[in-house]
């Protein structure tokens, strides 16, 4: 009986330090931790704002990319003149 | 005004290609070799015109100029518009490749009809040519809108509703194109009236005049 009680005591003493800090923190967090939490919140909101801005920029960029650029225009005009040039060449050869 | 891929039913797509191919062949046969440079320039203008956006409140519409193309070219306009639309769908992703036949039909047929009307009624004075040119330019886009409704009607859409919608949406473009065509044709009538002549007379009747 005494041996068992002593065992419980030892177990309790061993467990006590593990339980204590957690329960203490949960009840009254030190100032430092609260500061860290506040800092994290500020950072979080700033980051999410940045992220939203970048997402908007990506969407705008994608819209820009889908629109034809100067390169496409000149490519098309070049194709048209080239094809009609070939047609004129063939027509001229057939005549001559 | 472009029909995208997968909007039309298969038979309308295939039919559009068949009719367009036949009309392109006819149009190529009607093309005289001395007209090729003019054809190239007008095709390039048609190709680029669709990039000129007209701001319209929240959205914007772009120029189409089938009427002007037809008035300047006559029957070869169909070939010109087919090539322009092919390159637009390759380079600008306007409309799809499968709908190319239907798109060419939708824009090319009004062009040829407008060309015929212009040659028929252009008269002799510069003023009259400019006015008829403007009317034809407006008519081309209006007809293209009606053809659009007709083609969409084959896919089970309500034709009258679509026609009304397409016409309403294009009223500003129709007006602007009328003005642009009137100015262009008036200018050409003054500077180079040869460009406006004889688009529908057969090649045999006036070779190398």
How would you characterize this protein structure?
Chain A has 96 residues and is an all-alpha fold. Chain A has one domain. Helices cover 92% and strands 0% of the residues of chain A. Chain A is rod-shaped, with a radius of gyration of 39 Å. The model of chain A has no long low-confidence stretch (mean pLDDT 81). A two-stranded antiparallel ribbon of chain B has the order 1-2. In chain B, a hairpin with a 2-residue loop joins strand 1 and strand 2. The radius of gyration of chain B is 17 Å and the shape is globular. The C terminus of chain B is likely disordered. The chains are: A mainly alpha (96), B mainly alpha (209).
Index terms:
heterodimer; A: 96 residues; mainly alpha; 92% helix; B: 209 residues; Arp2/3 complex 21 kDa subunit ARPC3; two-stranded antiparallel ribbon; 7 helices; 68% helix; disordered C terminus
CATH architecture assignment name of chain B:
Orthogonal Bundle
Biggest interface, residues from each chain? A-B, 18 and 17 residues
The helix count of chain B comes to: 7
Q: Helix and strand succession of chain B? A: HHEEHHHHH
User: Helical region count of chain A?
Assistant: 3
- Total strand segments of chain B: 2
CA radius of gyration of chain A: 39 Å
Order of helix and strand elements from N to C terminus of chain A: HHH
Radius of gyration of chain B: 17 Å
Mean pLDDT score of chain A:
81
Strand residues, percent of chain B: under 5%
Strand order of the largest sheet of chain B: 1-2
Shape by Cα distribution of chain B: globular
Find the CATH topology of chain B. Arp2/3 complex 21 kDa subunit ARPC3
- Strand fraction of chain A equals under 5%
Low-confidence region ranges of chain B: 203-209
Largest sheet of chain B: 2 strands, antiparallel
First CA to last CA of chain B: what distance? 39 Å
